Amino acid sequence: MRFDPEQGAVDWDGLWTLLLSLLIIAVTAAMPLFFTYLHVLRIARNSPECANACSGCFVFGKKLVNGAVDEEYQLRLERALRLIQQQPECLVLLLGGSTSAGEPSEAASGLLYLQQRALPGQHNIRLEEQSKNTLDNLRNARQILQQEQLNQVVLISNRYHLARCRLIANSLKIKHTLCAAEPVLNINPEMLLKLFIEAAYIHWFVVGKTWAQLTGNRRMLARVT
């Protein structure tokens, strides 16, 4: 079930839950979406920009622009770089596969960016190059987390994205703390739109998971828990 349609076509489960999500928004005059938006805004504003002792860290990839990392992805990688410089023993997992034919994976592009920066010779970086959306990022990363026997990880992403990261990590029972790529949330029309889109994704995810629980749809639940 694809709750994040940013990378291509949705499956039938995803399409049905999207329609259900839109129906609920229409029937309730968008009140659930409004409160979800406030939640996304609160997480974006209040999330810390640094982490203390770290044994594992997930850095979310982002769709490449002409085969290169964009400014937002650079911010995520710069935050990870500071963490690596302070704690080179920390396992840093770069997340993200290839989203366009002929392009490198988001994870590989992130590693190349770090190598071109002041990346210490001693580090513990691994790549996850199969996922194409936030849900799959965390599902695949959870397998590596279990293999490494890590109890808790730091999730690094841009502030507007952190509420979705936290929701899905909680659904997958991944113990974590959030780490914002930017020092502060800069409010502008573009950022307000991004926060709204994140609220819509979260509303869709919650509706889909709730529907799966109410109907006992094991296939859908297997994707999100």
Cα-to-Cα separation, first versus last residue: 12 Å
SSE pattern, N- to C-terminal? HHEHEHEHEHEHH
What gross morphology would you assign? Answer: globular
Q: Specify Rg, calculated over alpha carbons.
A: 17 Å
Number of domains: 2
Q: How would you explain this protein's 3D organization?
A:
This protein has a five-stranded parallel sheet with strand order 3-2-1-4-5, sandwiched between helices. It is built from eight helices and five strands; from the N terminus they run H-H-E-H-E-H-E-H-E-H-E-H-H. With 225 residues, it is of the alpha/beta class. It has helices at 12-27, 31-46, 71-86, 106-115, 134-148, 162-171, 189-215, 218-224, and strands at 56-59, 91-95, 124-128, 153-157, 176-180.
